[in-house]
Design brief:
- Its cofactor is Mg(2+).
- It catalyses: a 2'-deoxyribonucleoside 5'-diphosphate + ATP = a 2'-deoxyribonucleoside 5'-triphosphate + ADP.
- The chain has 137 residues and is an alpha+beta fold.
- It has one domain: Alpha-Beta Plaits (2-Layer Sandwich).
- 41% of the residues lie in helices and 18% in strands.
- It has a four-stranded antiparallel β-sheet with strand order 2-3-1-4.
- The longest helix has 11 residues.
- The radius of gyration is 14 Å and the shape is globular.
- The structure holds adenosine-5'-triphosphate.
- The site of adenosine-5'-triphosphate has 9 residues, from strand 4.
- Adenosine-5'-triphosphate binds next to strand 4.
Length: 137
């Protein structure tokens, strides 16, 4: 069965949107296989976001992601990678379609990083790589 790593990012967590995000995942029919609340450390964030190193939003992104607690979930279900990304909507929450998590619950706050509530892995390879970073052992 396919798995994906979902993160309720610090903005989603601090706004009290964790339950709403998890509700949508369960309502879609996916399974929450593992769940943890942690304050992401910069070392693991650097691994997680290695592909963005050097981009202008990289440092602000790591600052934002390490700013407070976040919820990490391993989500399971056939085609859940594609399915969760459809639930999440476009990266830019202003442009994300209504009906999606970002479109319904997100907006632009005028900050250097897109605070867009959730993360979802973009491929099976990314999912396994990211799950190993955050759920080692
Ligand atoms: P995610 O990987 O978080 O599900 P995504 O795949 O839509 O979102 P990525 O391209 O992987 O987006 O970028 C990772 C994160 O970096 C985004 O979710 C967003 O928070 C931030 N980000 C991406 N592009 C920009 C940008 N141009 N300006 C500011 N922040 C950005």
């Amino acid at each position: 069965i396919e798995r994906t790593l979902v993160i309720v990012k610090p903005d989603g967590y601090s706004r009290g949107l964790t339950g709403e995000v998890l509700r949508r995942i369960e309502a879609k029919g996916y399974t929450l296989a593992e769940l943890q609340v942690i304050s992401p450390d910069r070392e693991r964030l650097a691994k997680h976001y290695a592909e963005h190193e050097g981009k202008p939003f990289y440092e602000p992104l790591v600052d934002f992601m390490s700013s407070g607690p976040a919820v990490f979930a391993i989500v399971e279900g056939h085609r859940c990678i594609e399915g969760f990304r459809a639930l999440a909507g476009a990266t830019d929450p202003t442009a994300a379609l209504p009906g999606t998590i970002r479109g319904d619950l997100g907006r632009d706050w005028g900050l250097p990083v897109q605070q867009n509530i959730v993360h979802g892995s973009d491929s099976p390879e990314s999912a396994e790589r990211e799950i190993n970073i955050w759920f080692a052992g």
